[in-house]
Design goal:
Elements lengths: L5 H4 L2 E6 L6 H12 L3 E3 H10 L3 H10 L7 H12 L7 E5 L5 H8 L6 E6 L2 H9 L1 E4 L5 E3 H4 L12 E2 L6 H15 L1 H7 L4 E5 L4 H13 L2
Helix pairs in contact: 2-11, 3-4, 5-6, 7-9
The structure holds adenosine-5'-diphosphate and zinc ion.
Length: 219
């Protein structure tokens, strides 16, 4: 419903945690729409740079194709600059950052946070979710091959769907390994700061959104 009340608006400095394939992007779009705050996805920023063949894009691609993290200095600089923009003053949703303790420590020096949402999906579901994912080239909406029944266009905007280069089995395996080793420790990191809320990501996307909004309304 349009502009949020100041009370809610002030409390919307959000980090989304969760494994690759947990559905962070899908939920981030919904939250950003609902509260009228910017959605900052480091993965999206890197993919845009790759597409436009910028210097950052050239660096990022070599890491992303292998399933590794883009170097911290590059990533932190991008996030720091983005959070300094005016539209982030009242709130934002960070999707895909931080991804290791070093980035989380850096973020402490950049901004306060109100909540860290961990979208939890059992590890054994993640490989199938990611290798079966198809993404809209127009609006970015995600689909899964099991529900597409052979269709190759977006139900929302009609553009073609594609498979992300890093959604192949070998790269996904590496991304999941990186997640368990480097990103999962952030759950304890933010628990210790009393910022962590866990949401069940192993249900349909609308049910996850309902849980997420419920948590945010209670802040
Ligand atoms: P997913 O969460 O499905 O892996 P993302 O779009 O968030 O997808 O990230 C894709 C890739 O972009 C990652 O595998 C990583 O190489 C790079 N990346 C995204 N965010 C970060 C970050 N905070 N630090 C380092 N690399 C990142
Ligand atoms: Zn679309």
């Amino acid at each position: 419903m349009g502009t949020p009340t100041p009370e809610i608006g002030e409390k919307m400095k959000i980090v989304l945690l969760g494994a690759p394939g947990a559905g962070k992007g899908t939920q981030a779009v919904k939250i950003a729409e609902k509260y009228n705050i910017p959605h900052i996805s480091t993965g999206d920023i890197f993919r845009k740079n790759i597409k436009e063949q910028t210097p950052i894009g050239v660096i990022a691609k070599s890491y992303i194709d292998k399933g590794n993290l883009v170097p911290d200095d590059v990533t932190i600089e991008i996030v720091k600059n983005r959070l300094a923009e005016d539209d982030c003053k009242k709130g934002f949703i960070l999707d895909g950052f931080p991804r290791n303790v070093y980035q989380a420590e850096a973020l402490l020096n950049i901004t306060e946070l109100n909540v860290v949402l961990d979208i939890h999906v059992p590890t054994e579901n993640l490989m199938a979710r990611l290798t079966g994912r198809r993404v809209c080239s127009g609006c970015g909406e995600s689909y899964h091959v099991t529900t597409l029944e052979g269709r190759n266009t977006c139900a929302r905007c009609g553009e073609n769907l594609y498979q992300r280069d890093d959604d192949n089995e070998q790269t996904v395996a590496e991304r999941l390994a990186v997640y368990h080793k480097q990103t999962e420790p952030l759950i304890e990191f933010y628990k210790a700061k009393a910022l962590l809320k866990t949401v069940n990501g192993d249900q349909d996307a609308d049910a996850v959104t309902a849980e997420v909004l419920n948590v945010l309304e209670r802040l």
